[in-house]
């Protein structure tokens, strides 16, 4: 793919053979600003062509431009100034920090650095001002590059729905019960014997992540992060769905609102990516479906190419005041697409080291 | 199969060819006190042998004793003094009331009469005292027989779990999000295109039923029903599971309790059916699983032959105080088995017209 | 959509609200030659806007151009010279024949007329010469228009794979066992209780259709259709897959061939649609996957926008000589897309009444 | 639960924590002749209580008698004279041979020794005379104990159906296409992303095993095994079903027979286990269902407690003469139950070292 005249920024993908890594490769294949130049994976894959090293599990075909790239090993040196990480948790710390130390812009989907006090946990529509922490990050770490994290797949769609409510009405309490797709656990991930004709009402650490990430995302930044003051409880479940997390949400708003006002807040919501016209930005971050039985994974997960959150069933909650359902694609807007949108914001803001 | 010396009480099943009707037939086949004498279904089936009229969908084999019974029509007269109803909603009113008028004991699984002010909505472990309303029913209606209803499949398992909490700690608020099996919608019920690789976050009238039935079930009876004073909100979802409803529950107790106390309340709970040793009574109405990832439909729906509710993941809820998961078989304890247990209670209490 | 300067041919879709009808609407929305001008459905839908009358079940969004069209009734008169039919079997005969009598080109996906001796059963890559029967059809029926049928969804993909073998090696015997998607049965179609955690080894009339249609498709036309002399046996199964029929095929070739020769015959196969560059024609009608475990529905059903057949596992068969697996999208190339490709061929050949 | 007066033969289960190992434990829990005395698994599990070491995946509850047994390691010494093996392939050879060398009766479900010329591959209804090879095995190997294998899960049900045809009509050719359950691949086995809304038309080595095992099973023994002279071809597929393999079969009989004769051959078939009344023997090894759409996994896999093969759709095959569908439980009769039935036969025949 590299060829004379391709002015796109070369990027590397860490953990490129895994399921989120594959999404990065697929979404970047036709990206107007970024070009996949380096694919990095574990020693077992290193040296092989990407097509050979990868058990491709997406319904879209593997891009030709990636298929013949030789997979690099984690310990080697990279040329790309921008790096996307889909590393397994256990190796993320050392490698991601090395990338930042070497001066690269590291956009990570892994959980390792999300809650660090000097790392922005970023959804461009929700908390774009959090990028201000990067000065502190560079200072305290002594890095020439940086690390930017995106949230957990369930937290992203929840917070895309919560943000317009917070900014319009104020937000005091959130109850959420999730029905999460198996692709959220990677590949091989969930064994089929655990999920055919079944539900698993437990996902390790997920309920904790959803709560703590939400408080950071909806909180302020004033030289340091200040958690939002929201009471929050999550129940997380795995269901026999390939892609698309469904979340049942009840909220207590500071200023009570009827369903029509809530719907209007969702539909009129726009953020920095929409103002800037970023290439991966959905025209409308939160789409509202008005049918009684929507959103549904098979019908709504690909809305706006998988980059929007789809809300439905907005109605009064006898307990907290308002309830609704939100659904989104967990490996596009919930993972790889989230990192890419973060990188797009950084490019436009002039924050990339290129 | 009726034969000389079979002293069991002859019973009729209304709506016998449908999926709950099949459960009645299966569960009654080996019952020590009741004998299936009459199977009643729509005109389309009337006159045929049950085996021929029925598209049998249970994994247990159709009982030989039922297979050759000729299906009767709704408009005909019946001999059985005890009748179980799994009628479709639209015809339930007229037929069920006729049965009671004719002096029969009618135990119904349909929703038509559940919320009537003179009909007991009965779970023998939860509100056995509600049978006292029958005097009023007979009086006001002028019937020689009576109608007793059992709750909706989701409400039964929720209330089996709530009752021990209410009586031990007091109960102020309930949040529940359900993941319900497709058998809850009968047969043909949910089209496969609606549910393979999918979730439907809506079940018509289900959230309303769960709320209103819970308030009646946990409320008192003092010449009239008094709704329990509990704030309640339900989110109901359909998932690709054959049998077994999973419910994520958060509760605010009047007296806060730690998880160990709550577990103890569940495990020590016993009701009238257990005291009386009713044949279909589970030894322990609420079973607690201590594994991190239980209960699960495939592993737990058949606990105590499908007659128990299985609880797990008892833990603190940041919002309401306590949260847990409850799961139960929706067509056994959640439907046909519930009616049968009601009839067993009535027999022991001497309330049957035989 | 209709607007000054839109020179595309107006077309009507019969049975537009059903699942194949929806595919027609979706595939035609961006068609370069045809424009959906009329949507026709049962009385229950007539008069409503298409968006309101339709329970849309495709993952692609309903096209705006169709959403606001008022649904017409079957008995009304139509303006479009070209008509696509996805009618239910019971009403197809009368309505389809009326269309042809009125001078329209009727391309049908229903089975009613497929085996008529004066109706071409057409796959443009397989038997384009069969259109010659239309002279006879017009003569014998006295119609100014005509009826052209496409085969059953399983037969189309089977025959796309068999044709290159027949023309390269000669074909004597075919054994096929299918694993068919639920969308093949329409909507509501297969009840979820019949297919979750299950397989149904029977599809009414399917085995007969596959056999008789194959003999017509691979047979000659010489003033009349001559069945191909092929011994054939089919086993048809329904599996819990949304879209994409998988077929295990063993064949006895007239001239035995090793797998490499067979693969070469598949890969080099091209037909009239490829020569003519028809808009819906896949560049290569039969794609061969070389991985050990392909084709698979989720990975391969959308190959060439759902218009190709995907073959894999070409290997020796101890019994018949050669075996392989073929997979294809059953509602795109297997239904709506097949009719559209037929209409495209007719336009280029100058056979449309416009 | 060893206790004074328990006269049952103590047995060991190798690979006890895996999914077939769990089936052994479940099926043996209430066995009249055998008592689970030792559970053996990999070092990772050794020393732990079985309940703690095992991720129990069966819908039946773990037997109390097994839950508290301490898991032993492979390298330790055993007391039990009878051993059931569900070992992973890679370690089976050394351990199983050691068991036989030490004088134990080793009944194995693993594939390692199945095709050895001195090991009986045994289905008691099909080839009970093959046990005669044990003299040769002891002689050539110098073992005081012995190894007896049971076939692959798909081959067992296929051969239970083929045997009555072979002995009644003679059997010349077999075509089979399977739809196999995920439990056949063990746990974790098939990843859910590979099988939700999908089919995988490939199972490593399965087609080869089905062919070679069938020829051995249906062949004679005359001092050495003689392969049956049957032309055979298999297509093997994985489908989203938990338990129960479905197989579409076409056969060429030496003496052509109409469906009624074939059905009669199936229904009248009895073998040594039925003559001897072995405790795990199904009353009728091959059950015929007469409904058009049977057998189906959810409805038929548990027939005769999972020990029978269920046949349906017996009809003419245009290619080979006769076709039908056979279905059976793959981890009961297809694995653990098969080994147990073999051991029961050995006990009655006086061949156990006890």
Quick take:
Four copies of one chain form a homotetramer. With 354 residues, chain A is of the alpha/beta class. Chain A has helices at residues 19-28, 50-53, 64-67, 89-101, 133-141, 153-169, 206-217, 259-268, 272-276, 297-300, 332-348; strands spanning 9-14, 34-41, 72-73, 82-85, 105-108, 146-149, 171-180, 220-221, 225-226, 231-238, 245-253, 286-288, 309-317, 321-328.
List keywords for this structure.
homotetramer, 354 residues, alpha/beta, Dihydrodipicolinate Reductase, domain 2, six-stranded mixed sheet, 11 helices, 30% helix
Shape of chain A: globular
Strand percentage of chain A: 15-25%
Distance between the termini of chain A: 20 Å
CATH topology of the largest domain in chain A: Dihydrodipicolinate Reductase, domain 2
Present the secondary structure layout:
Four copies of one chain form a homotetramer.
Chain A: E1 9-14, H1 19-28, E2 34-41, H2 50-53, H3 64-67, E3 72-73, E4 82-85, H4 89-101, E5 105-108, H5 133-141, E6 146-149, H6 153-169, E7 171-180, H7 206-217, E8 220-221, E9 225-226, E10 231-238, E11 245-253, H8 259-268, H9 272-276, E12 286-288, H10 297-300, E13 309-317, E14 321-328, H11 332-348
